[in-house]
Automatic annotation (TrEMBL):
Its EC number is 2.5.1.3. GO terms for cellular component: cytoplasm. 4-amino-2-methyl-5-(diphosphooxymethyl)pyrimidine binds at residues 40-44, 71, 115, 144. This is Thiamine-phosphate synthase. 2-[(2R,5Z)-2-carboxy-4-methylthiazol-5(2H)-ylidene]ethyl phosphate binds at residues 141-143, 172, 192-193. Mg(2+) binds at residues 72, 96. The keyword Metal-binding applies. The lineage of its organism: Bacteria, Bacillati, Actinomycetota, Actinomycetes, Actinomycetales. Residues 8-195 form the Thiamine phosphate synthase/TenI domain.
Length: 215
């Protein structure tokens, strides 16, 4: 596993991909061509076996220098690893299994991302062994029904400064937020609809990355 780069972090959504007539794997492939550096497979509806196959399919087409993370499902991560997939870690939130338990289940080398937006959550995530935190939402979003209140770019950057591990922003992020998030101390920006719903996921990823790199 190469050192993770969270700069442009795609979180997948099968129904959005299908709304554009594509599979998750097709969108991942197009987004990787546009420069996505990290991919989280997030599937709230399918069964465990479908989710496992989605993870295996994505791992099979993603280059080694792109990090692959499984949302929520520790069992799916462990099953994919057992089958030899090059899956790198998991992302869990405040209502998922406790991070300290997840760290023991996945071992010391796997990546563990934890959603944490308050100083208390960030301190706890770090002491539980998180490798990075996800902070959100930056802007309101229709993608996550139970999303918390928006922090804005300024609030997100403030929260990121509490962290001594990399912080990834999420929620309603578009290309015009990227440069301010980077300047605000974020290590990356995670997007769902900006790529999964894009007419051209490669061009969308390229634009997001270009804005991230803008001085
Ligand atoms: C990078 C990143 N940050 C935050 C989240 C949200 O995780 P969680 O709070 O567990 O919510 P669900 O995604 O499980 O609905 C994330 N997935 N990725
Ligand atoms: C999966 C997820 N988690 C969030 C959080 O704040 O924890 S917001 C979110 C969805 C982000 O989707 P979009 O880029 O389409 O707004
Ligand atoms: Mg979760």
């Amino acid at each position: 596993m190469s050192t993770p780069n969270y700069s442009l972090y795609l979180v997948t959504d099968q129904s959005m991909c299908e709304a554009r007539g594509r599979s998750v794997t097709e969108v991942v492939s197009l987004a990787v061509a546009g420069g996505v550096t990290c991919i989280q497979i997030r599937e709230k509806d399918g069964n465990a076996r479908e989710f496992l196959h989605q993870v295996l399919d994505v791992c099979a087409i993603v280059p080694d220098d792109v990090t692959v993370i499984v949302n929520d499902r520790i069992d799916v991560f462990l099953a994919a690893r057992t089958l030899g997939a090059s899956v790198d870690g998991v992302h869990i939130g405040q209502e998922d299994f406790p991070a300290s338990v997840v760290r023991q289940l996945i071992g010391p080398a796997a990546i563990m991302g934890v959603s944490a937006s308050t100083p208390e959550e960030i301190t706890q995530a770090e002491s539980d062994g998180a490798d990075y935190i996800g902070i959100g939402v930056v802007h309101s979003t229709d993608t996550k029904l139970d999303a918390p209140s928006p922090l804005g770019v300024t609030g997100t950057s403030k929260a990121a400064h509490f962290a001594s591990i990399p912080a990834v922003a999420i929620g309603g992020i578009k290309a015009n937020d990227m440069s301010a998030l980077r300047a605000g101390g974020l290590s990356g920006a995670a997007v769902v609809s900006a790529i999964c719903l894009a007419e051209d996921p490669t061009a969308a990823a390229q634009e997001l990355l270009q804005e991230w790199s803008r001085q």
